[in-house]
Protein 1
Amino acid sequence: MSSITPAGVQAGTQGGGGGEPRRPGRVSLGGLSLNLRASGIYIAFALIVVLFSVLTDGALLTPQNISNIIVQNSYVLILAIGMILVIIAGHIDLSVGSVVAVTGALAAVLMVNMGLPWPLALALTVLAGGLIGAWQGYWIAYFGIPAFIVTLAGMLLFRALTLTVLGNRGIGPFPDQVRTLANGFTSGYLGNVGLGALGGADLFSLLIGVVAIAGMVTAQWRSRVARAGYGQSVEPMALFALKMAAGAAVILFLVVQLARFHNLPWVLVLLAILVLAYSLMANRTVFGRQIYAIGGNLQAAVMSGVKVKKVVFWIFVNMGVLSAIAGIIFAGRLNQAGPTAGNSFELDAIAAAFIGGAAVQGGVGKVVGAITGGLIMAVINNGMSLIGSPSERVMLVKGAVLLAAVAFDVWTKRRAGAAG
């Protein structure tokens, strides 16, 4: 099977499998060259957090509120992981909200009405999500219908199926294990340690934070070495060290705050596993490079031997699986499956991907960026709720942020074109 090398991706993308061949929007700060396109989202996230921390008199960053932000938005972040891959490949999925609803309803029927053991019910639900993704992937990849049309039809079909299964009632309650996955926290396995003015925290949670920091630094260093080995430009060592230090500080702060509340939420553990797995897949595997190649330059990908139809098919299968996982988490959090579950989730997932740096034309985006985009919306929602803003003002701000993110993407492309 032909593979796409980093050099091959470089010809067709702007930010594929770990490299950034074209680097528009660079600025110099104190002699350091900064790629605004790659780093702007993280700078914007930091500024938004600081702004709402000030506006809420620090309430935004209290241990309980940080935990609430993660737990209450976990399903959108899961969907964003799958959506970023769909968008990188140059497609869109409008059906994920309805798939969340129908898979949550299926899980409820299997566990509550039929009395199946919860592990078997969850496995069957995830399998059903994969089959839904395969159904849509077939029409898109092999029949040639645009993804917008197929998933728009899926949004209607699976919402109708949800209403057929549930009617106007919810099904619950869910088993304790499922509720724990959605709302529960890890136990204090290694005891509590003192942190001075910060109070006590679970040692196990702190060790998880240290491991996460070590993994982040190792992955970023390997990526830097790989780019340098292929002759691609890399940031100065001082800037790299600054980025690693900032990332480590953020991770350690979050872990300490969570450990001070009820330790790590189980959904955060699940999210960390998914982010790590999908980041490695996107950056380190042939399949991941093929996704970037398809979105960056479809003709070049075909000429390079990429089996485009097969790759696109499996992207939508994956989206169905992640939608089923999100459906289980959402239903477990509410402790019932309801007919209105998943409303507008597709818009939140798409917005997270674009705010997180995905390009409208495809070929650009990162899993971590999509998670950051989802967290930006979560912080805006939570922060404006804490200061008592009405819902219409929240929607106004979120819409403005989305428009600004896409406008920035278009602006950097135009600058790159003018420079070339």
Protein 2
Amino acid sequence: MTYCVGLLLNEGMVCLSDTRTNAGLDNIATYRKMFHFVDEGERVITIMTAGSLSVTQTTIARLREAVDDADATEATSIMKAPTLLKVASIIGETLAAVRLEVNEKLSAAQASASASMIMAGQRKGGAMRLFLIYPEGNFIEATEDTPFLQIGEHKYGKPILDRVVKPNTSLADAEKAVLLSMDSTLRSNLSVGMPLDLCIIERDACKVSRTRRIEPGDAAFRAMSEGWSKALRDGFLQITL
């Protein structure tokens, strides 16, 4: 399983993903689940993936192949699409097609595979947009009322986002919020694991402004986790019935 989260804020976008992939208790591996497509100053697209590795890797590979195609058009390449809505549509169509192909091959074994994605992006002169793309290829978009989207094991990390994330949340506070959201998930679900990949996309920069890989044993992440645990314990003890 996995956990990925994306935030859409006035100042920019924040994305965070784990890297654990497992096919049973004795088959755990690490695979990157965050991918960037960038034409600096013109367009930035970040995609995070959750679900079947065969589906997600094939989908990303086909998206890259379409971008590199000498005959790429606005209808086939996410780097040429005229709007981010069209980008989400291309990703959705590719994901749905790959899922059907994989499931056809798995049908003899009475098995199936599925995957979902989060896409964050901005093109020059356009607004920042954040989409959650479902296995069937349809999608929803983040709004002012719900400025974050999650895929994978999202239930453990959702409460803090519900309480603190608003469109006017600063990028610094947003980074803290997604990391605490991930920390809650790591503590409650062994199918989510480090390293973590974090990226910041500042408004109108049309590039990935900052990336950070957080490895197991990262001192800053551990200190934040311990501080959060202490704050929760202290808050709990202060509440009276």
Protein 3
Amino acid sequence: MAKPDAAPSPAGRQGANPFVNHESPNSLFGEILDWMLAPLLLLWPVSIAATNHVAAYIANQPYDQALADNVRAIVRLVKIDGGRVTVNLPAPTRALLRADDVDTLYYQVIGPASNLIQGDREIPWPTLPVKPEADKVLFRDERIEADNVRIAYAFVPVRSGLPPVVVQVAETLKKREALSASIISGVLLPQFAIIPLAVILVYMGLMRGIAPLRLLQERIHRRRPTDLSPIPVKRVPDEVRPLVLAFNQMMGRLEENLQAQQRFIAQAAHQMRTPLTGLKMQTEIALSESDPAQMRHALELIAESTDRASHLINQLLMLARAEASHEKLHSVVPLDLDALARSVTEEWVVRALARQIDLGFEESGRSLLINGVPLLLRELLNNLVDNAIKYSARGGHVTVRNRAGRMAVLEVEDDGIGIPIEEHAHIFERFYRVLGTEAEGSGLGLPIAAEIAELHQARIDLLPGSNGRGSLFRVSFPRYWDADYTPPNPPPSASGSFPIGL
């Protein structure tokens, strides 16, 4: 059935939602129309069959009664004298049976010896019951030559031990069929007018019913592209109101995301402006120097500023990547958190040695599986380790450890300057840096770590370090349980607390 409210979608449209089947548009109007009219069209043949049955039953009643009366009249004329059976059927009565000018009537009287006493041989003989009932008229349908007939018959007992006399009257079905056809046409002909009228009324009712949806659609289309304010629900139908409320909530979240993006762009532009301004000034100084030593010093400053700008850009790109749907960019796989943490920690050995920091790793000692994106998890751990080394004094200690429990826990602990309690609520904000520190940074490392943890349904917490010194960052991941998994390169000891590179 056609769905007038469904507009076809252009095939091959760029940017179309891949989860929407544009070749089979889904129309609420069409769905309701189908579910209302399909039962009606399905019941119509059932109604026709029922009408035929009822019409045949009604048409049979008067004619069956007339046949039964004829049978009873002939039964009264049957005389039984001892074992002799006679029928006194006057000629006028026989003529009356033949008087029908539409249907052909037959009658028959069969004696106890299965002999034809009087009437027509064409009527098929019935099957004698075991205990025939006297004065009861029975009916059956048969054929005489090429005509269908209706037969009424009765049994007349003779005496014990002898079969009964059978009296039968048969009639063709022309009058019955004419009456049945008249009843059917009288019932069905109005339906041919009622059903199209019902379809039109249903269509008009649905059009009227979805009119508020069209008004809501027009109100949304008239909005400016930047208008993300909630849609008023005052005149919205009750059935659509939950959808509009959910849409308003989505619009509110979208507004918050847009505002956050605008703030992020503004902050990122400000952060980028600082190193670029420094690069320009240092380049001008280098160009104005004639002393090779001073020129070399200026070039070294330019190289450092370039490194800082490059690091900032890489962190901005990683933050944007973490904010995107990582399942579209990377595959989520089960991975061993011990193996990942050990690999990342080893990469920081040289940096830790350069700052004379004792970098250690403590593994869980068992298979510690989680579902995750390896690239993003390495970035999370890199930022935590970088932050710990950066804010630890020379000769300090940084420990990366894993613990296995109901959750898979990753911890990075240092004994550096620590973070004041009042700053804990802000350290995961973008571009936020704790005041009073001399270490260089962009303020993006911890927000990136928090974003990646959220994507992996993990929780990241900041706690004081051991003995109240330094900081401890704890990330708790949901574990991936697989009894058949064997971790690669199993550690030689069950509980390992060992330094890396020191």
